Amino acid sequence: MGLALLSSCAAGRDYSWPKFDEPDEEPINNLATSLYDEDGRIEDPCRDENDCSYVHSVHNAPASQQMAPWQASIWAYKYQRTSKLPVEQGDWAKRHRCGGTLIAREWILTAAHCIAGKYRNYTMTVRLGSTKLSDRSGRFYRVLKKIPHKYYDSRTKANDIALLQIEPAYRNGVRPISLIGSNQAGANGSANIFGYGKTRNGGSSAILLWASVDVWNMGACQQAYSHYPGRINSSVICANGPSTDTCQGDSGGPLVFRNKLLGVVSWGDGCAQPGRPGVYAKVAHYRNWIDTTMASRARGR
Questions:
Q1: Model confidence over 33-49: pLDDT tens digits?
Q2: Are the beta carbons of 164 and 294 closer than 8 angstroms?
């Protein structure tokens, strides 16, 4: 997955690694292509001005555990035998599939396309309590149930939202985020994005990054995506910033407004492309589905 994925094409922002479960000696993605090293120190991305004329910064800065105690990394394994713990060095680049957000002690909210299709049969674990995928900090929780929205459409990304039921998350420094209420239509102004996805030079990041983005009004977003009629409606919200956006590897992660979960990373026309904001499943629109689904599972249905 190289810079070609930053071109204008509507796509979900998950990883579809062809190298799941390859031997550990196979080449894997590494931090050489990230804006930051493993300690959060910024590296010079442009030794030559021409090197940066066609790429964009996707995130702004490293995020701390205190900033995002609800951030999850969803790891996928094609075969049960490969899902061993503790993780081996380098596994993060093979296994991280999507982001997610802890919204209750046993529940992760993510994007449906992260767990749909062939991934319904993959073994998945959720990592919480760490902002650095390349070490062994934090804790992994088993995924007990994958629940994509009943009406998710893989072609249009309609209803691109899902719940993962996990083992109860007990750990200092980990806590759920509050959700935007169903009576809150949206937000104006700035919001924050978080993720481990693609960075300026096209590679994934082993450390959690964040950026501030601006929420778009519905009319402007519909105009930006007029070539996808019907996709921009009351179930989604759009946001980006000057050369800041979510990208592949950030799918399912959070769009946060005033310390509440506003949206779930879904898709976009390239990444950080001028005039093409990221598109997020709007949490307020799905509050009833989220609440009803969690309550029904609690009752054993």
A1: 445 555 555 555 554 44
A2: no
Choosing from 59, 96, 113, 149, the catalytic residue is: 113
- Indicate the pTM of the whole model: 0.84
Q: Which of 83, 134, 251, 266 is catalytic?
A: 251
Per-residue DSSP letter, 148: E
Query: Would you call 37 a catalytic residue per the annotation?
Result: no
pLDDT digits (tens, 9 = 90+) for 256-284: 999 999 999 999 988 888 899 999 999 99
Nearest Cα residue to 252 out of 3, 1, 12: 12
Concerning whether 149 is annotated as a catalytic residue, the answer is no
- Please give the C-alpha separations between residue 154 and each of 158, 159, 236, 258, in angstroms, as whole numbers: 7, 9, 15, 31
Q: Is 59 a catalytic residue?
A: no
CB 99 within 8 A of CB 250: yes
Give buried/exposed letters for 168-191 (b at 16+ CB in 10 A, else e): ebeeeebebbebbeeeeebbeeeb
By the 8 A CB rule, do 246 and 227 touch?
no
